[in-house]
Amino acid sequence: MADAEVRVLAQSDHRAGQDLARAAHHTSPISDREWAYAQDLHEPGLALGAFLGGDLVGTTFLLRSRLALPGGSTVPMAAATGIAVRADRTRRGIFTRLERESLDLAVAQGFPVVGSRVSEATIYGRFGHGVGSTTRAVRLYPHEARLRPEVPAGGEVRLVDGETSVGLLPRLYERLGPYRPGVIERSAGWWKAKWEPLVHSGKGAVVAVHSGPDGDDGFAVYQAMRGGDSGARVTLMVTDFHAANPEAVAGLWRFLLGVDLVEEVCARRRPADELVEGMLVDWRACRTHSVNDDLWLRLVDVPKALGARSYRDGDPFVLEITDDLLPANSGSLRIGPDGVERTSDRPQLSLNVDALAMAYLGGTSFTTLASIGLLRVTDTKALPNADRVFGTDRAAFCGTTF
Ligand SMILES: CC(=O)SCCNC(=O)CCNC(=O)[C@H](O)C(C)(C)COP(=O)(O)OP(=O)(O)OC[C@H]1O[C@@H](n2cnc3c(N)ncnc32)[C@H](O)[C@@H]1OP(=O)(O)O
């Protein structure tokens, strides 16, 4: 069979591309109503299609975003989504072609980093992607989950109606800013495609906003689900929860645990270091349901990506990177508090670009990477120093679907 031709998808083909991706995810074609919300999400020039004999058989869409880095800066990130190959044309290298071209497109468009949320964890490592952040799914039982008196108090929570939230949430989310590594920018198109349909669906998404002394500083979105034999058991499913400071985090949890007639509160995506158990009188009233990969990262321009974040005090060290797919990234860099530069000095530590993605936001230490065989150590003194230099105060967390 002839090779697929991969090219930038004309804007007029975006909808067909979305339908193809939805079919690959076992979802029905997008309706006119849904498309009215979703069409602004995809920018011209940032989607690729694979064609066989004129037929569209594969897609990749890149969304413009920015990624928060340790130290509070941000870097342009292409959020990869809608990755799919038509079911009758899989396992013949079409995705591999699309993936190579989309990494090149990201570099050409000035994105040092590509982020994704992956359907299966076995597909992306070979292309240099690694898990940049993890999340924890927690379940709390309000009847048992009383907050300890020391937990930060103050501020107020108010519910806002759906129409108000359409204007308020984008402004509030932007106001929170890069409050922890891993958080990503949400475009106006993202809010229109991902939030407005839920508001207008009548599915009962409730928005709780926390405000402190400086105004609104966090929000949680939840839906009440009925279960049990009589349908009387109510679970609050928290689907979106971002807060910039400990008072807002505590205030929103206090509110969620205080809603009447609720059996359990479930939050699928919480930062790995949010110690909800520690806030409770009964540690066991919060159960970890699972720990999951959150944002996958592919550093497509390694010097730029590493140069965009800040580093803690410590000695500069020489890190060797191997990137078979994008060889311009291969080589050694000297990394330290004063920045990042190419060097021909002998490397002290060496790794592959997918393992570097795991360390980039401070999510996985070099010591851990070495212990599982993903980092080669030539100079043992460099290991604790590299951990110090890459260290962060807060666990990386994205918490945005795309
Ligand atoms: C960020 C996102 O959008 S994630 C969403 C990804 N999309 C989906 O899961 C939708 C359903 N699946 C699909 O559309 C396709 O199967 C894809 C896109 C995952 C893969 O497309 P294909 O054209 O079949 O991939 P391709 O033939 O290039 O295979 C590349 C390699 O990945 C492997 N691979 C592909 N799909 C899978 C899978 N689902 N599980 C494990 N390995 C896989 C292949 O075996 C191949 O490895 P090999 O070279 O060692 O043989």
Automatic annotation (TrEMBL):
Q: Which UniProt keywords apply?
A: Acyltransferase, Transferase
The Gene Ontology terms for molecular function here are: aminoglycoside N-acetyltransferase activity
* Active-site annotation: 124, 402
Query: What is the superkingdom listed in this entry's lineage?
Result: Bacteria
Coiled coil regions, renumbered to chain: none
Summarize the subunit comment.
Answer: Homohexamer; trimer of dimers.
Instruction: Spell out the protein name for this chain.
Output: N-acetyltransferase domain-containing protein
Species source reads Streptomyces caeruleatus
